[in-house]
Each structure stands twice: as C-alpha cells, then as structure tokens.
Amino acid sequence: MYPFSFSRATDERSAFAAATSGARYIAGGTTLVDLMRETVERPTAVVDINGLPYRSIDLQASRLRIGSLVRMSALAAHPDVRREFPVIAQALELSASAQLRNMASIGGNLMQRPRCLYFRDVSASCNRRTPGSGCAAVNGLNRGHAILGASEQCVATHPSDLAVALVALDAVVITRDGTGERQIPIAQFFRQPGTTPDREHDLRPGELIVAVDVPTGPEMRRSGYLKVRDRESFEFALTSAAVALHIDAGVIRTARVAVGGVGTVPWRLPAVEQALQGRVPGAGLWSTAAALAADGAKPLQENGFKVELLKRTVERQLRNVAGQP
Amino acid sequence: MVDEPDDDGAGEYSAFRVNRRTFVGASVTVGGAVAVGSLLAGCDDAESGEDAETSRTTLTLRINGEAHELTVDNRTSLLDLLRERVGLTGTKKGCDQGACGACTVLMDDTRVTSCLTLAVMHDGADIVTIEGLATNGRLHPLQQAFIDEDAFQCGYCTPGQILSGVGCIKEGHTGSAAEIREWMSGNICRCGAYTNIVTAIAKTSSGA
Asked: How many other C-beta atoms are found inside a 10 Å radius of the C-beta of residue A231?
C-alpha cells in the first residue's frame, strides 16, 4: 500500500474541501482498503466521511430515502424495508458476508469496483485500471464476465446486487458537492465501458453520494431477488434477477425486471417488462417473457452458459414473485 | 525487528518512542519501512517527501476493556494493529482480503473483518478479540462449546469463527442450522469442521 494522509470530515464543507485537494472518500472501506493494498487504488489522501449525518432510513408516502452511510446490514434489517421493498432486503442479504455487510455502506456499495481478476492484478493489462493498456479478459479467463453491455475495451461485470434491485425500482442517487445537490436517476448513474471504461459512474470529481431515494408503488411489496452462484453463499452472482410485479384483478399492471452478473452495469430488461404488462399471469407467459432476457447478449469464449442461465433465472424469479412456482 | 525509518522529524520520533514503551511488539514497522522505501523509489510524486510527516495518526482504542493510545502509520489495518502493535496475536490473518473471516473481531459489539478496515478510522472504538472474551478466568460459553463439541481441528480459523459466532448469536440469526450456516458463511474452515461449529453455535444460542 502506498502512503497517504488521513483526515476525518466533521461536516460536508470539510469533506468537500478535502476532496477538492484530491482526497478519496472512505466510508466502510471494504472495497477501497482492499484495492489500496493491491495498489490498484493509490490515493495520496483519504478522508473519512463516517462523521457525516447520512445515517437515516426514512419511509414517506412517495419514497424511501436511504442515507448513504447506512450500513448494508442495517438497511436489510429495517422493518419498513423488509415489508415494503423485499427485493432490497433480499439483494443485500445475498451479498457478501455478515461481517462485510456490517461494515459496507450503501453509497460505497454503488461505488464498488469490478471484481475482474485482471483489474485486481496490477501486472495484467486492464483498460479500466490503466486506460489504453488493453483488456486481458477479452481473450482470457472470462467465465464470470459480462454478456451484455461490454465493449472491446472492457468486459467486467458490475458486482453489486443492491444496484440491480435499485435499477429495477428506478431509484435516484442524491449527490452533493460545493456547488449544490443533484438527483441522478440510477440508470444514468452507471456508465457502460464503451471507449472510456475507467469512467464507471456519473459523479464529478469530489461529488459525494448523500442518499438514495426509492419510489413507492403497489409493485414494491411484491418483489424479490434471486441470485445464482458457484457456491450457495458469500459469492458474486453468475446471474441474478430483481423482479417487482403489481398484479391487480388477475392482470399484471406493472412489471419491473433487472438482472445482475451479466452486464457491465446493472441491466434493466424493458422488453421483458413490456411482454408482461397488461397480460394475465400464467406458465406460458413467464417463459415467453423470460425468453427475451438475453436479447443482444454477446458471450465470450467461456461464459456462453450465462445466456440460457439468465433466461432461466428470470423465468424462475418471475414465477417466485408471482407466487406461481 | 527493524526500527522506524529514521527520516522522521524529532517530534515524530519522540512520540513514537513513548508509544513503543507502552506496547508489546512494534514489528508492524518491518513491513511498513520496507514498503515505504521500495514504493517511494519507484514513485515520481513530488509530494512523496512529505509523507513521513503526514502519514501517521494518533488514536485511542479500547481493546478488551483496556485503553490503548497509539500512533500508527495510516496504512495499518486494524488486524495489523492488534497483532503487531498491541501483541494480540489471537486474531489471525488468513487471506487479508475479507474473504476468509479469520480476522473477525467485535467492534462496538458488531462483528467485522479487521483486515479490511484501517485502524485510523476507529478512534474511540471498543474492540473485543478472542483474548478478551473470557471473564474472570471463565471461558465465554461459545469458547466452551467449541471445546465440548470438538468444533475445530487445526484451530487457525477458530478465533474468527468464535467472534463471528458471538456476533451471529447477538444478531439473532441462529433459528436453524441452515440459518447459522448462511450467517456464518463469512468464516471459512479449511479443515471442514463446519458441522460441529454449527452445533456449538446452536447449543450456545439456545443455552443448552
């Protein structure tokens, strides 16, 4: 690990001031400390933001507001979240381990960096870590990599489960910096790699996530997260599906579907949603809709299995959430 | 044991000596001193020369009920502080990446992996390690249960398993063997003593 100076922000002003002079924000640290030790991240200054007042979970009529410093475990355990947004609680509890969930913050969860082993290995080529150096994963060990949203420059998946749920639910990321506050729809927050894979999100330098808003709606209570992994617990997704359905008078009024483990960003499936909306739930419908889940997929040498696995993951989770297993 | 880099200012050095007398072991600086030299040699950052002045922080931690004031290199993980600065080697370093759970301790009553957090982030925190679980010479019930149930073989993961198990019981995730397995999945046991670990936690949580 390279040396760095350390400070604690006592208020937003001191946090922004530190960031303006080049400091990296640290909250839980479970990603940043790990990557600093691997020298993937080399900040010369780190500012601890845990003293800032972003710790509340507040359910109102139109939205749930989640402070960015709320820990994953606290959000997952919150009774309002478990009752009104089961997909959020499930995505969190299927992430990482109990210890890491006690440490990791919600803002930091969205800021997680790729788990691609070439990204983490400073001796390997990686356009995300070192722009222009090439991508060792395109023709390397890429069983766990993306089949959607990749470019020639980068094929790493986005690692967050929570983000998949938040993309399905149209969450809004609330940020602040010295110039004021912004509300960024989460689908715009995450950037596909394209020709600039080192730009992973929409944040400006020094801009800080202060909260995440999730809209309420009748479909939120009927929601859930399914995660398929190489082992049953404490593992990143091969595929995953976040689903929310509003079924009224025997008809699907609203369907929200996003998938993880397959995209360079959390991947919304509007075609699947459209195939469901206005239709009567039934065995044929789930498979017809789920058949669209991998549209546009471009598998790599080792991850072709994800195409079929993704369709089956979506179909199973549609059935689970609809209560038609 | 290698000493601190001697290019520190005098004030910094005297502060360090005070701390050094207070604590058993200061060998964290072995890795630190070597790393600083080699990394700076290959680093063209003009500000690097200031690092020796700005890369340390003084903090106070309550560890197993005892207050410790230390001045640490900012890079020091909580795990390395416990093992190398305070001499509490019961907490183990397995993967140093948060993947194995061997370094689990309780921080402010919550289980965390001490390898993945910087010590400097926890000024004022209350830490409990395996050395602090027994009270008045009596083992914690989960420690006793690990012995009674034969819940370890080589023992390397055991301190982390026990601290994680204490956290798991406090959190209330011991309703079934399956629930215990899920909520203990952050602790790897390469000997495969899982069956007896689950039994030890289940019996302790039910008071049996």
From this structure: 7
